[in-house]
């Protein structure tokens, strides 16, 4: 019996060993500078005290998700501080717009937290690199909502108003490169003001590349300006918070890194799957190993056409995935639209939509509409011919308008 038990334990350890190695933080391949730039781009221009809380909260993605559900259920802001979340998550929860953005993009949030845990210096350098790009493009300037300061080459962003923090609204694909183009104007606008509260208890030390706890007594100029309006709470001001910590277990959380390509706003051709292959998270498509007799009896789970409906681009042309002359029993064949023969080029068309207008002829349709309106505008003649003439005179304007087609 003891021998059999020993064999069973050995087999169990062998089965678990690959997973344990895969989750070893030392096996994780670091993000490249381009990847980190793309991850930071959506928040790099946020005020320093809020950005610092975002980076720390990103290491608690599960709590971010819980906080978003809690707030969306109609919780009072006063109830946020009573929840068992990390202080960084509570701080972000006081800014619902930011909280919901993080909760709705948990793959991005988790990857951001993983980058900060493993590559703090690289993350800090990326923020400064992106801010320099935005400043060089003329988009990062001091406004009534934000105070932009340069200290020893480091760009700092502070709240300009002592009682309110404004969130910048911008497209990362524009803010770091140039102006508003042909339309002119700034590419960065601002949200309504959110209260500055005691929860903004940390800030950046850009010279030494770390986040520090200021405790509302030792900080940058914005701290001194906002301090008279802040209601002190021991929840956010206590000695236990002096050592700013992160949740290092975030590096073990599963992430679909393929979803991160949607954030390729600064560097377009960045792939995340290759660089994170050793983190124990597979980027390959799930297999179709379905151990269900009912499903197997009614469909072929290995049919390659299943790939077409996975919500991602197929690895080969769609036409190659469909066998037009094959019909399987008990299986519905998807309706594949026939390929229309090529048409002669049209003189007009919206280039943004490929000039494809189908069989719709705007001129003919307009003429039909004008005829209908004309009939409605010209009632049948009556004995009061003078009144009819006046009505027809009004209808003439419709006809005249259509004559310009």
What does this structure look like?
- With 405 residues, this protein is mainly alpha-helical.
- It has a domain at 22-277.
- 37% of the residues lie in helices and 7% in strands.
- It has 14 helices and 8 strands.
- It has helices spanning 2-22, 33-40, 48-57, 61-72, 77-80, 87-93, 96-103, 106-118, 120-136, 172-175, 221-226, 293-298, 362-377, 385-402, and strands at 146-151, 154-159, 164-165, 168-170, 188-190, 194-195, 202-205, 210-213.
- It has a two-stranded antiparallel ribbon with strand order 1-2. A two-stranded antiparallel sheet has the order 3-6. It has a two-stranded antiparallel sheet with strand order 4-5.
- Helix 13 (362-377) packs antiparallel against helix 14 (385-402).
- The longest helix has 21 residues, at 2-22.
- The protein starts with a helix and ends with a helix.
- Residues 13-26, 277-290, 307-366 and 380-405 have low confidence and may be disordered.
Top keywords for this entry?
single chain, 405 residues, mainly alpha, two-stranded antiparallel sheet, 8 strands, 37% helix, disordered C terminus
* Shape descriptor: globular
Instruction: Tell me the span between the first and last alpha carbons.
Output: 94 Å
Mean pLDDT: 74
Strand content: 5-15%
Poorly predicted spans: 13-26, 277-290, 307-366, 380-405
Q: What percentage of residues falls in helices of 4 or more residues?
A: 25-40%
Sheet with most strands: 2 strands, antiparallel
Output the helix-strand order: HHHHHHHHHEEEEHEEEEHHHH
* Count, helices: 14
How many beta strands in the DSSP annotation?
A: 8
């Amino acid at each position: 019996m003891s021998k059999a038990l020993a064999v069973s334990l050995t087999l169990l350890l062998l089965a678990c060993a690959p997973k344990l190695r895969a989750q070893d933080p030392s096996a994780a391949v670091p993000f490249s500078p381009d990847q980190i730039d793309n991850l930071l781009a959506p928040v790099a221009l946020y005020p320093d005290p809020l950005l610092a809380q975002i980076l720390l909260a990103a290491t608690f993605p599960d709590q971010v998700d819980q906080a978003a559900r809690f707030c969306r259920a109609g919780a009072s802001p006063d109830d946020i501080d009573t929840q068992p979340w990390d202080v960084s998550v509570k701080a972000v929860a006081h800014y619902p717009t930011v909280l919901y953005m993080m909760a709705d993009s948990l793959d991005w949030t988790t990857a951001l937290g993983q980058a900060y845990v493993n590559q703090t210096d690289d993350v800090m350098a990326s923020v400064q690199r992106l801010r320099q790009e935005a400043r060089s493009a003329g988009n990062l300037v001091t406004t009534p909502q934000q105070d932009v300061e340069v200290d020893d080459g480091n760009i700092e962003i502070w709240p300009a108003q002592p009682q309110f923090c404004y969130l910048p609204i911008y497209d990362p694909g524009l803010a770091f490169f140039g102006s508003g183009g042909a339309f002119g104007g700034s590419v960065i606008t601002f949200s309504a003001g959110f209260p500055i509260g005691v929860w903004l208890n940390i800030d950046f030390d850009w010279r030494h590349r770390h986040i520090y706890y200021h405790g509302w007594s030792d900080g940058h100029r914005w701290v001194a300006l906002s301090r008279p309006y802040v209601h002190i709470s021991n929840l956010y001001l206590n000695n236990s918070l002096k050592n700013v910590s992160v949740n290092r277990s975030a590096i073990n959380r599963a992430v679909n890194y393929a979803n991160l390509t949607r954030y390729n706003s600064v560097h377009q051709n960045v792939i995340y799957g290759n660089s994170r292959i050793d983190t124990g998270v597979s980027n390959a498509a799930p297999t179709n190993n379905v151990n269900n007799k009912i499903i197997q009896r009614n469909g072929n789970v290995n049919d390659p056409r299943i790939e077409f409906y996975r919500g991602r681009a197929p690895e080969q042309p769609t036409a190659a995935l469909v066998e037009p002359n094959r019909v399987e029993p008990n299986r519905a064949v998807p309706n594949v639209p026939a390929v229309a023969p090529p048409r002669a080029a049209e003189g007009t068309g919206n280039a943004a939509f490929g000039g494809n207008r189908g069989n719709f002829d705007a001129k003919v349709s307009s003429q039909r509409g004008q005829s209908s309106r004309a009939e409605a505008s010209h009632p049948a003649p009556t004995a009061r011919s003078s009144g009819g003439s006046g009505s027809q005179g009004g209808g003439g304007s419709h006809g005249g308008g259509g004559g310009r087609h």
